[in-house]
Design brief:
It contains 33 helices and 14 strands. The protein is of the alpha/beta class and 1117 residues long. The chain has a domain of 318 residues: Alpha/Beta hydrolase fold, catalytic domain (Rossmann fold, 3-Layer(aba) Sandwich), CATH 3.40.50.1820. It starts with 47 loop residues before the first helix and ends in a 5-residue tail after the last helix. GO terms for molecular function: phosphatidylinositol deacylase activity. Its EC number is 3.1.-.-. It is a multi-pass membrane protein.
Length: 1117
Amino acid sequence: MSPARSSSPGPSLAQYPGSRASYASPSRQSPQAQIPQPKQQPTPNTSKLQRTQMPVIPAVFPELEELSYVGDWCRVILEEKLTVGVDRLNKYSLSQLEKLNSDKRALKTFVKGLTSVQEFTQLRDEVLHSNMGIAKTTLGHESELRELHQAVEEQRAELRAAQQSLAEKQARQQRIVAVREVLCCGRHSSRPNRLRDMATPRLLALLALCSAALTCVYVADVVRTKQLESKCDMTWSWPVYSAVTWRGAPQHASYGLVRVDMKLERQALGGVPVLFVPGHMGSFKQARSLSRHLWDADPQLFDVFALDFREEPTGLSGDLVAAQAAFLNDAVRSILREYKRQRKSSSSSSAQLAVPDSVVVVAHSMGGVVARAAELLPNYKRRSIQHVVALGVPYEAPSFPFDAEMNALYERMQASKAANEVVYVSVAGGHKDTLVQTSLTGVDTVANPSRAVSVLASAIPKVHTPVDHFCLLWCHELLKVVAESLYKAVDLQTRRLGSDPSVRLAVAKEVLFGGQDGGDVADSEIAENVSLHRRYVQDGYYPGEYAGYAMILPQFMTNLLRTRFFTMIVIMYALALQIFYAQVAQWQSRFNLQSSSSPQDLSQDNFPSFTSMLHPTAHAPAFLRNSATVVSDALHGRSFLGLSKTSTAATAVLTLVAAAVAGYFGYSKLVSDTEGFVALGTAVADVIILYAYALGLLYAVTRLFSLLQRFFISPIVSVLNNVTDRLSLRRWMIIAIILGVVQLIGQIKGSSMESSKVLALAILASFAVFFVYLLALGGSLDGTSDQLRMKRSLFAVFCLSVFPWAGKVAFFAGIVRWPHSELSNDLLVEGGSYIIILTLFTYIIGLSLDCMIPLPPTAFFGASSGLDAASVYGKSSGNSGTSVKITAENCPKCIYEDGGPGAILEEYSDRTTSRIVAGKTGEVVYIGPTFRVVSCDCVYRFKNSRDFCDFCVRSCRLCGGGNGNFQEAAKYKDFLEESKVDLAMHALVPMVFQICAAVQATYGLYRAHMSFYFTPGCVLALIIYHIVLRHPIEARRIKNKQRKKTTKKKKSSNKAKSKSTAASTTTTSTTTSSTTTTTTTTSETTSRNKKKKKRKSATSSTSSASSPLIEEVSTSS
């Protein structure tokens, strides 16, 4: 602090008559307290010495105003003396004045020696001495009056003390009421918010550390599992693959039917048809090991076929599964038809053999789902599939659960179980199968339990080793058991598969659960083994198996991560939706009029960041926070001050209803059902663990992405933006370029112009445009801090909703490679809907890159007078990168120097504040505002609003007005009544996100595909929010900003063009006339130098003649 603003107390003047009741320090002296200075009379000689003002003689007491004639008398005398001094100065020559200017000491002595200066100082001292004498005599005459003032002040002090005690009691009661209101509206006050802000980084950092450690340990266990030595022996074979070319073979653009023989190709069909169905990205060549074991059992008994699906990613798309299932039915029909055709044209000896009416299906991975889905299609021939051997097939749920068509297919499979004549034998790989978890291979949901059996490979007596997902296709021990079960299920006389499904199932159980010596097993032992293996498959291990692998994680954690890993992504998606809802809701509430006695914490951000909202208390729904608060208060024995009477009654009613329901259904039954109780507790524990894991992992990924954005993504986006700016490319041009490039690449690989291929290329191009826009959204650094936070949250929502599009891209990429001959209506509608959805995604990203989400209607309260919060927010956010909070401390409208008895003041100065040095001692006096009120407690101190200070009854829209601003509050209530519809529509937008998040976190927790439907709904709500619900004033301001930007760009481009043209013209002119320009330039430079010399000489003479005396002769000297 400067010496002029020292905090030392000044002399108290309250005891003198006529003084103010409250002392104002010299630094806060108002201009009215100064004596008006007399104007100087102009003289013929205009010099600074004549224009200097006389020192101001302050009137210390009102009684001394009668002596004001002394100032006039002094002024007249001094004017006469000054004229004499000036005449004396005029007698000096210019050379003498220059000598005085060079020697400062001589100049000071000369000035002090002037008679006018000496007489002026003597006269000033006499006047001050006389003033002090008069003041002493006046104080002596007023001693009696001072005693009376002291008595009156004592009585006033007693009265003030009584009033202050009464005001404190009233303020205490009002504070209790205010606390109750705050607890009822929102129990998190400013202090809990500060505690939450302090605990947020600690809790999230701890969860992120635990999640990262858990992920590392899980990955280490997976690597160790893959490194475990397999005890399976390799199956060696001599396969012969031949494409089926007979008449009536199934025709498809990309699929094919292949026959697999051993050593030699066979032309005739004389055995039991066995069809191998490959899985996800599987090949028909994977049937060679199965064909070898069947050939070992009987070289002529089985005819092995395999489907060629071109190694498509079947596990990603339900459309691929449906297409493959349709081709499977056509292949089965063709195989059975070929048997009949060969029987008619064969000899009499072979005519004795029976013609098969069904096909044995051996499926791997998703091939089993294809075979099961084939039974649900219209082209399925009844009883054409009666025996299915599934090797690592996920019947319970898809391994990649994000595709909507895949989940619809599973729902159909589980709704209508397989027919009773179909036998299902499912074999799970066990611990080494990390792609398809063992618990997903159960067949009880898709088939009749009496016609199906599930076994664990590591628990089969003849195998007794875990088998990985691809080892299921070549494991010698396992395939030998499978081939033996199929061999024993065939009637060797008729060379047909057994017609009785129960017999075939019994044979399969006997072979699978039989001992290594091949002896017979009792039926009771087989039944016991079936139940045991069903339990093994559900748990994933037989007892004691997991301990032998020496894994780091416990068994329940390994099962949880293997089976519910994608559920964690679902929780992340629900968290992103809920966080975006909380951010938009807080954004809409930040512009409400702050008229309550305890306004919300203004230190919070308008649009909070994504990481700050990851804390559970920040994104938790309101009813969960309230219920948690009630429970915590009940546990700690607190009173329910924050709850109103209605909420207390509602809590009591809900408690009574819950007790009645528990009594009706029977509490004893609930406790006695230990299995259901344990299952419920396990499910709740799983959800809590997955939630904590997802929260920590999401925080860690967010931090990691911030680093990637800073050092990798943002530089790439900035380079691309610079390139597009230089080329003057607009967004529609970029989109057209991407569409054209994708179509060109698609036509290069294949010159066919089928309509299905054109549609598929359009969908892939739309996805490419969306991906480019998503990259721009994640790497954008333009805009205000609120807009950047909004972009980050929207980027998180889109990134977590991209997973369902993997299957769509894979399906249409396959159509580009092998186009359909005809474009069906279903494919056209499906592809068109995808293009529309991706266009909506791209459009909302473009809107988010340009502007912030619309301001709520409350931000435009007072827009007619120009005091709306939207205008202040636009100015503060547009000028700087951060949004400035308008409070009483920095509000440009609320500047009050005086407040109530409990007012808190802060040092403040503005342009009107001036600093004046007066007197011989150099006393500093400030004129204008030097302090301002930042807070006051008149609302708690006084009961009547008439006693409030000006600060408490002010009317300001920028900082929320005063605590006692009842008139403004009434206007605000009328404004809310008029804009009810707009407020409801604005509130519906974040509510859409919250509803989607609630449904996804409850009903859709294990339905990951629902994000494919929720994201377009949320995007549509945001588009309506941007276009329809934006206030006209805000839209007009945005248009004006865009016009200014475009005009600036045009001006800059025009300047660049003019500079380039000017440079070209100058170069051409210089080359043609170089000699003439040199002569003219030399002449011009010489003339300019002469003019400069003349100007310098003139200025130096004038300055040396006048300026030194004017600078030195001043009042300060």
